[in-house]
Amino acid sequence: MKSKRADSRYFTVEESRETVSRDKVYDPHAKRVKRDTYAFKTGATYSGEWIGGFRDGQGEQQWPDGARYEGQWKDNRAHGKGKFTHIDGDVYEGDWVNDKANGYGVYHHINGAMYEGYWREDLQHGTGKESWTDGSIYEGEYVAGKKLGLGLYSWNDGSKYQGEWYENKIRGFGTYSWLDGRQF
User: Which domains are delineated in the chain?
Assistant: First the structure.
């Protein structure tokens, strides 16, 4: 499975600017209120909590193509716990910081594959576990969306490789073992 971004391309500066006027600055002490659904010029809609012109608190934004984010907002950005549903049915659920997957989260692909682990700037980064419908599993390190560092890959036939990875490829020292006990 190729690295998949949690996908922050939907969160645009234009939408953030549309609801904020120059004479209204963000006031963290202002009262959070729930308002009627707001329709952006882009065609996206937002239902949820606001502080002034800022989406802040719990809310849901939907885009014209069917993509949807449900979760926490802060300072007009997806920030906190949230769930993003892609137009193809893939779903990322986890931590968000400044409109991007950052921290711990789970990405479910519509085809049944899954990644569970850490993210930075919308890419797999840190320790994680990737699994596929054929029973294959990778557990290990990721850097900028690629397997890099130490990891264990278990194929559905019982063979395994434990060792070093570089840019999604076996590279460096490691041990490949087969179900019958042979090792290389």
Answer: 1-100 (2.20.110)
